[in-house]
Amino acid sequence: MALQYVKQVLDNTNQLSSHIIDLINFNSGCFYTLLTNDINQQNLHHFNWGGILPQNPIQEYFVRGKKATFSVIPTVQKELSEWIREKINYKTSLSCIFDDVLRSVQDKDHSKLFYNYGCFYDDEVYYVIHNTTSSEIIEECLEQSDATWHSLFVITTANFGRAI
Question: What is the pLDDT of residue 127?
Answer without folding.
Answer: 92
